[in-house]
Amino acid sequence: MLTLIVPGLIWTRQALADLTYDLPLPAFTTLLGKGRLRQCPPQDAAASLAEAFGLAAPLPAAALRRLALREHPGEADWLCLDPVRLRFEQRSVIVDDPQGLALTDEEAVALAVSLAPTFAGLGQLEVISPQCWNLRLAASAPTFQGLAEAVGRSASPLPLDAAYAAWRHAINEAQMQLHAHPVNQAREAAGQPQVNSLWPWGGGCLPRFGNRVGTHPHDMLWSADPLALGIARLLQIDFAALPDRFTRADARAPLALFDALESPARVGDALNWRDELARFEADWLAPALDALRRGRLDALRLLAPGDLGAAELHISRRDLWKFWRKPRALAELAPP
Questions:
Q1: Closest by alpha carbon to 301, among 256, 260, 263?
Q2: What is the pLDDT of residues 213-258, one digit of tens each?
Q3: Contact criterion met (CB below 8 Å) for 208 and 192
C-alpha cells in the first residue's frame, strides 16, 4: 500500500470548488469517487506522521531533527528555536515562511553565536542547519505553538503566565540584538529579508521504543523534511528524498510526504497552489491509479491534514470495479 500525506490540500468547500473548477483532475476525482472518504478532526502534518507511524503526538521535533541532521540527541530535552522573519501587515504581525530567508551556513552561525548568551539561562543553542536551530534545555520548558501552524498567520504573543516570563525576556532581547546585527544589516543592503526573531516550538526528548522498532506498518519514507527523516532514523526504516513522480517501489508499504501544497495554501497563493495540485495529479495520483488498475499496487491511502479539518481516503484495487461509484469533486474533501 502507498500512503500519501498531503498537507495544504484542504480549503473551505467553496474555495476548493472555485480553485479547481477548471482543472482537469481525472485521477483524483476517480479515486475520490471509488474510494472510501472519511472526515476527521483538524490536525497538522506532524500529527498525521505521528499517527501513521504509531507515535505519540505532539512529536518532539527538535530531538527528531537533530537525530536526522546531526547526531543522536541522547536523553536530553530539546526545543526548536528557529530564525524567522516577522512582518507587519495592517494591524497584525505575520510569520513568514522560514524557507524564504535562505540563510547561509555562515550567516546562521554568526547570528547564533551572538544570540547564544541571551539564551544561556534557558539552554545551549546550536545550529542544526541554517533554518533549524535547537536549544538543549537546561530545564523543562512550557508548550509553544508549532511553527508550521503559525506560518502565514498572525503571530500570537507568548502568554503572560510566569512560566513564559524568562522566554518573553530572552526573545525580546534577541529581537533587539537581531535588529542591529551586521548580518541583518548586510542582508538589508542586499535586498534580502532579515531575521528579526526566533520561534520556540517542538520540545521534548526522543521517544524510546525497544522491541517496537521494526513493527510499524511502513518500510520506506519519502521526504526531505528533517522531522520526517528523524522518524525514519528513529524507527530504523529506509528513507530518501521525495521522487519526482510515483513509480512502483521495491518497498512493501512506502509513505510519501508531499508538502508542496502547504506553503501556498498557508499564504493564500492560489496560482502556485493550483500548479502544485496539477503536478500532484500528473506525477503521483495518475501513476498510482494506473498501478492500481494493473495490479502493481494493492491499495492507496491519502491523508490530508488541515486546520479546518482533515480527511482520509482509502482505495483498494477491488474498489475500482465498483462501476456504480461515480467521480467526486475535490470540494468534497473539505468539511461540511
A1: 256
A2: 556 688 899 999 999 999 999 999 999 999 999 987 677 889 999 9
A3: no
The pTM (predicted TM-score) of the whole model is 0.89
Do the Cβ atoms of 16 and 333 come closer than 8 Å? yes
CB 199 within 8 A of CB 95: yes
Q: For each of the domains in the chain, give its residue range(s) and CATH number, in order of start.
A: 2-59+209-333 (3.40.720.10), 61-204 (no CATH)
Amino acid at 237: I
pLDDT tens for each residue of 128-143:
999 999 999 999 899 9
Is residue 228 within 8 Å of residue 222, measured between CB atoms?
A: no
**C-alpha to C-alpha distances, 232 to 59, 79, 123, 216, 229, nearest whole angstrom:** 13, 20, 27, 11, 5
- Let me know the angle formed at the C-alpha of 32 by 148 and 56, rounded to the nearest 5 degrees: 35
